[in-house]
Each structure stands twice: as structure tokens, then as C-alpha cells.
Please model this.
Amino acid sequence: MTDLKEKARILDRDGIRRALTRIAHEIIERNKGTEDLVLIGIRRRGVPLARRLAEKIREIEGSLVPVGILDITLYRDDLSSLHPHPVVRQTEVNFSVKGKKVILIDDVLFTGRTIRAALDAVIDLGRPKNIQLAALIDRGHRELPIRADYIGKNVPTSRRELVEVRLDETDGEDEVIIQEKS
Amino acid sequence: MFKCKNLLGLQDLSAEEITFLLDTAIPMKDIISRPIKKVPTLRGKTVVNLFYENSTRTRSSFELAAKYLSADSVNISSSSSSVAKGESLYDTARTIQSLGADVIILRHPMAGSPRLLARTVDAAVINAGDGAHEHPSQALLDLFTVRERLGRLAGLKVVIVGDVLHSRVARSDIWGFTRMGAEVVVCGPPTLIPPGIDRMGVRVFHRLEEALPGADVIIMLRIQKERQQQGLFPSLREYAVLYGLNRRRLALARSGALVLHPGPMNRGVEISADIADGTSSVIEEQVTNGVAVRMALLYLLAGGGDRHENDY
Model:
């Protein structure tokens, strides 16, 4: 790994909270309530984001939506070029997705390949009514025809840059920073 | 992290590597329980089952593991191939290599043949049983089953009962359980316990009543009827009386002790029917876990190339 230099802080604790609050409202509005709604976070940082969104939806609508965890390692398209292989962790979706409106949640939307893998993984669990995508950051540079339905913040970046989302649950702080390879 | 190219035996693996393998098998077990038992992970990879001895469960377990991961698998058995025409292991291996195999799973009556194969081919080699030497994937599924049920391996007392002399399962289990910090005891008639086995770090008993007290895990080995003709024990009936696991003997072990058997079982000989079907028995679970463990093995061994920048 090359050295990384911190360039800018694009969201702080309050910024993340406001973005998630807005996304929660948008999800409820777009789906006309929470009926048949399920949230699935993509490991790793999509998982705490999914839990936070579920909590916000509960505050707004008073109803609990199920939260699942998706590990997409086995669906990656670059496994043969990775050695040693990445650690496979558990997918924990303890409810049926059949006929449900699935909101996929990830921290950063970049090439779209993670989402492509996640779509396959969700569909292997059952046939949902539809799948929507929420991302805290959309940094562009898509390599596949994929877009998000809910975006916390659009951040134009160069490919040399790295967007890092840090969350209390995984990193002990809440912020989004851009780093540059020096 | 797991960096081995082949799996030839558990003797070569560290406790960290074994733990990593078992951890990888957990999500694999989830996949087997889903309605769609398939992930695209090993699409385009080829797995060859090369079996020089009969096997139903190990071969079909590896075959299903490969299929659940979307790899293509081919079975070659010695009776229906050029092997029957006298082709050597070396030449068969070169041929399979040329066919484009990424993983070769070998069962062979000669101890050490997987190592010879691994030196010959570029493909990853998995030992599915070599003579009386090792059967590592069986021991891994035993470790997985015990860890899942009892929550740990370190500090457990594991009793292996029966024909330890001819058993590759026993040897792999001994390496695996002792490496993970369990205490291993072997028990059987003196003719079926190899001299010097205590150097593998196990205690030896010849009476089951002395071996079982305090046991957390009891692994019953299959007794092969041919051994009677070799004069290693007088009769199956006597063997069953002295070394068969029944309710009375199971009561000597710790309450909640697990009973394992690599299969196929001789009901009424090494294990009574009520124990085989009872609440202590995890024999059927072993079969399911075998597929999960073999999926983990294929996933970890069927890779290649160098790590590149992670674009995800």
C-alpha cells in the first residue's frame, strides 16, 4: 500500500446524522410507509448504517423494519486474481426476502461491482418485489450501469483518491474523509 | 491467514490455519441450508476427483462441495479408467494436469502419494485419504462438528476407539485435536493399536471402561470385517462385547458428550443402534458439515495470481 495523505473531511458526525435522517425520510416517502420493507447492509460498513437507518425509521414511523447482513465475498468477480482469498464471513438474513422491498445499504458507491455482486447474492436468497440502493457517499467512476436510489452525499473524486467512511461502531468515530495517494 | 497450496495432512497445519479453515466453513454451511444451494465463486474452475479406492461419501461430498461453489467436477475412478490399464500415478497426474484441472482430490492406498502428486502437478492437491496415513478433510469436519456443538476444542478430552492401526481418520484426528489443545486418548485391542503411537502425544488404553470417564468426545472407528481373517481379533461378537459403544458405556463419559463416527457404520458391532440414533450422536451432522468444510477447502485452495489493488 502506498502512503496516504488526508486531504479533506467531507462529512462530520452531524453531517452523517443529517444525511441518514434525510435518507430515512426518503425511503418512507418513496415506499409509502414501511410495509414489506427490509434493510440489508453490505459488510462491513453498510451494516451499522442499515441499523441506524432502521432506528431512524422507527423514530419517524413507529414501526420496526428487519435488518439483514450481506457478505458478498463469494460473489466477487475478481476472486481468481486475489491471493490469498479474502476472509468469507456470514450472511445473516434471518427473514424471507420473497415479495419484499429490499433496501441495500453500502457506505461508498464506486465502481458498482460490489452492488452487482450484492444483487446476485440477494436474488439467490429469494425473489424480492424490488431492490433499491442507498449509499452514504457516491464518488462516481462507475464501471457498470448501476445507480443509487438514495444518496447521502455526491462527492466528485479522482481515481487517485480514496474515500474512507469511519463509523462509531467499526472505527470509534463518525466522519468521512478523502485521502490521496502520495 | 491460509497460504498453503495443498492440503496433504493435518500434521502440516498450525492451530491458526486450522481455525481459519473452520471459520471459513461457517458461512459455507449457511449456503447449504438455503433454498438455492449455489454461489458463483469458483465458476470456471475445474475440480478432479481421482479415486484409487472405493468411496461414496467422501467423493460425493467433494463433488457436491465443488458444485455448490459452481466449479466443474470430473470423477476418475481406478476401475473405469486408464489406471486399470496400468497407467502410473505420475502419468495419470500429468494427463489430468493437461486437461486443465485447478484442484485434484486424491484417494490412494499408498501413504504419501498425495505428496508425490503435489510435486508433479501445478494444480492444488487435496488428500482424500492415503493408505493408513491421513484423511485431513474428515478430521477437519470432526473438528468443525465438535467446535460447533461444544463451543471450543482446547481442554476437551477426546477418546478414539477401535482400529487405530489401519485408520487414517484416527491419525488425522490425533494431529488435529492435539494441535487445537485437546487431550486425545486412544483405545482398542493391543493388536489394533500401533506401537509407539504415544509419541503422537496420546494416551493408550486397552479397556474402554478406563478410557471413557471424563470424555467430552467419543470417536468410534469402523471395524473392518477383513481384520478378523487376519487374526487381529477373535470374532466380531467378541469385539462388540469388549469395544462396542452402548448406553452403559456412554454413561461413563461426561454428560452431554458427543459420539462421532466417520461412517460407514457397523451397527451392533462398534456402535449399538440406540446410540447411533440417539441424542449424543452427531453422525448425520458430520455428513452435512463435511460438505461445508470441503467447500471451505476448495475456496481457499482454488485461488491463484498475486493480490492486486482492491477496487471494491
Q: What stands out?
A: Chain A has four helices and eight strands. The interface with chain B takes residues 71, 74-76, 78-85, 87-91, 110-111, 113-114, 120-121, 124-126 of chain A (CB under 8 Å). Chain A has a mean pLDDT of 93.
